[in-house]
Amino acid sequence: QVQLVESGGGLVQPGGSLRLSCVASRSIFRLYVMGWYRQAPGKQRELVATMGSGASTNYADSVKGRFTISRDNAKNTLDLQMNSLKPEDTAVYYCNARHSVVSGYNYWGQGTQVTVSS
Questions:
Q1: Which of 18, 22, 34, 60 could disulfide-pair with 95, CB 3.0 to 4.6 Å?
Q2: How many CB atoms lie under 10 A from the CB of residue 101?
């Protein structure tokens, strides 16, 4: 079992920045694909960014050039730096851990709210 706890959400004006952080209950980065997803009201959950066990990254087109995913292996943390935020980035952001080899091992955090509004 893996517990994921997100933090760092809040209210920010358009053009501003926020940094989200996800702490995993144990060291998993070597075996898991880590990612950030978001879900806006009335919409499906969508991928924001992922980082593979080899540190390869993948971003949704809507956030490329604005968001950066990173991790600290020593602290078991996964971060999402969000710059140039737009109102359409408003959503609940979730941290995810998915085993890179074995299916059925897929974990979610409780989510953190990000609101971009003036």
A1: 22
A2: 8
Instruction: Tell me the mean pLDDT per 10 residues along the chain, length 118.
Output: 94 98 89 95 96 92 98 93 98 95 91 97
Tell me how far the alpha carbon of residue 4 is from its chain's centroid.
Answer: 11
Chain centroid, CA 51 distance in Å = 10
* Spatial contact of 15 and 118, defined as CB atoms under 8 Å apart: no
Q: Which two tokens stand for residue 7?
A: 């933090």
Instruction: Say how far apart CA 71 and CA 75 lie, in whole Å.
Output: 9
Residues 6 or more apart from 39 whose CB is under 8 A from it?
45, 46, 91, 92, 94, 111
DSSP designation for 88: G
